[in-house]
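For the sake of transparency, this paper describes our internal protein records without simplification. The record that follows is passed on verbatim for readers who wish to inspect the format:
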Amino acid sequence: MIGLSRLSLNQATVKRLPLAQALGLCQRHDIPAVGLWRDRVAELGVTESVAAVRRSARHVSTLCRGGFFTHADPDGRRAAVADNLAAIEEAAALEADALVLVSGGLVPGTRDLGLARRMIADGIGAIVPRAAGLGVRLGIEPLHPMFCADRCVLVSLGDAVDLALTFPAEIVGVVVDTYNVWWDSRVAADIARASGRIVGYQLGDWLTPLPADALLGRGQLGDGSVDFGLLTRHVLAAGYGGYAEVEIFNQEVWDTPAEQVAATVKARFAQLLG
């Protein structure tokens, strides 16, 4: 279905490793691509991060993350736009396939979902010209509804597609993350609607019971409830030709030696998607 030549390891899966060590891990396990996080890029510096990526001969499938546009005060909104413009510069330097946007939760002090969604649309509109100028694709990632209040008021792939469709396809698309969309009865139709706009595909399994910190409920592929074969068939049918990025937030995985984590990621990917 998807060969190992299209496997990417998101840096969050091996959270304890600095950027250079994560790249080395991918080299040793013959994982061709990596999803990077901006805090780790900042630790090393953009120039040295670019050099490290080139030395490793790895491809950057995504840079995480931009977004978080929903601020109550104008200064906060301006700062968010400025931070996203900086993220676009970093994504361009790293030649990432996409900058992932986690859009933001409710505006502090309000319960107004419509207001938050309008701010997100305005924020993306403010950064589209710079993304276009640098050839960076923006990927709007919807999150699971349990994150609506504090992280992302776009809680279905349909929400993300509706917003992306208001911008040029070559600049703004969506990220399909199995952990966040697997539950949605409309996901197949919305993946089809996203044809030509899927700029990233992320994989993580849904574990139950949820941990106390709901962010850490992602599991290795095959350990939970997600039908990866079905979702992957839909994504491929929609024309997606990029990398499939394994992104896991899980304390037990983080506490496991990174070499073992990478080996498990690769074996499960081959078993379920190869």
Summary: The radius of gyration is 17 Å. DSSP finds eleven helices and ten strands in the chain.
